[in-house]
Amino acid sequence: MTKDELTVLLSSWENLWVVKNNQVDLIPDLPMLMEIALEGRDHLSWRAAWVADKLTSRKPDLISPYLGMLVESFPTLAHTGKKRQFLRMISSCPVDPEVAGFLFDHSQQMLFDPREPVAVKAYAMQILFNISEDQQELKPEVVETLRQVMEMYPESGIQARCKNLIRKLIREPSRRGRNSGR
Which pLDDT value is given to residue 177? Predict the structure, then answer.
């Protein structure tokens, strides 16, 4: 499929069921999907991110080559739907130690930003949890961050997610071991 053909397919919601249902066929088109998702600021780029997320949810290792680019896009990323999709993709993969610090700080910022929707906050929490699984010394900081988030936001989704992650952070030893890189 050419980039123009993919763009036409993504331009209509009516076509997205075809894209979603034929995910395996789109694996060769992932580089073009990611290019469209990363380059644009419109609904078409969000749709490309949505399709890439659906494609990589079954095979998370496919997103690994793009993680650095996804992380780099956050300072200028304004579209909340695209931010949610990017965070979801990142939360399903091992975090590269080179970007873990930036991603940790940025995830905390998103948690305390009242303009961010609940879904963005939920994936930011998961990313903090994932990083703390690899860097055990960060667990107390993540627990404290999640407790502060609970104080700030009474939404039941945020409360439940925070409680669940805090319970895992306090009671469970790391599944991956210290600095194992997953």
Answer: 46
Is residue 169 within 8 Å of 129, Cβ to Cβ?
Answer: yes
CA distance 33 to 53: 10
Query: Cβ neighbours of residue 51 under 8 Å, at least 6 residues apart?
Result: 10, 16, 19, 20, 26, 33
Q: For residue 100, give the 3-state DSSP assignment.
A: helix
What is the Cα–Cα distance from 163 to 112, expressed in whole angstroms?
A: 17
Mean pLDDT throughout 20-36? 75
With beta carbons less than 8 A apart as the criterion, state whether 9 and 18 touch: yes
Q: Using CA atoms, how far apart are residues 117 and 162, in angstroms rounded to an integer?
A: 15
In angstroms, the CA 75 to CA 62 distance is: 24
* Whole-angstrom distance, CA of residue 27 vs CA of residue 181: 26
For residue 146, which of 159, 127, 133 has the smallest C-alpha distance?
A: 159
pLDDT of residue 76: 86
Provide CB contacts within 8 A for 77, sequence distance 6+: 83, 86
> What mean pLDDT do residues 86-107 have?
91
State residue 59 phi and psi, 5-degree precision.
-135, 75
What is the pTM assigned to this prediction? 0.84
